[in-house]
Amino acid sequence: PTAPFISSGGRADMVSFFKNDEPNLTLVAKKVGFEFELGTEDYRAIIYNELIEKKIPKGTSIIVSDDSAVWQSAAQLSDKYPMIAVIHSSMDPGYYELSKKYNQYLAKAVCVSVRTKNRLIEEISNISCEADVIPCGIPLEDYAAIDGSKIKSNDLINIVWTGRLEETSKRVSDITKIAE
Question: Among 64, 133, 145, 176, which is most buried by a count of CB atoms within 10 Å?
């Protein structure tokens, strides 16, 4: 931004988190003002479209986030840049609303669980693309115990949960099922 966003609360902007000297990273950004933060979805999509068309080679896939303007932009450019949706939550209706709205433009949907894939197919019975599930979780057998021995699937292990204890997106009630 040309000035800190009102909603930033004084926090650093996202661009400052990336190092310019990383060889495998190309940062594509533009200085924007309050009209970007406070403006319309259409305006933000126009800014995204301009950046993509000027800086990104045609044929590069666009993986959309949960920002509706990003979905709009990717849909508008989907004839030149394949649009890939990542569905992160089976509980957040936003992903499914955007997927339904932009269904015809999707080249692929990537779901973080079988549950999210099933809900996606349930919500969009005529989904226009293939939906895949990516591994989400940690195979404990690949890690060593504190004493250096390999963990086996039937071993008793201690798990420490760090993060938000929220049912809708984290399904914390599953923790007790896992522990049984």
Answer: 64
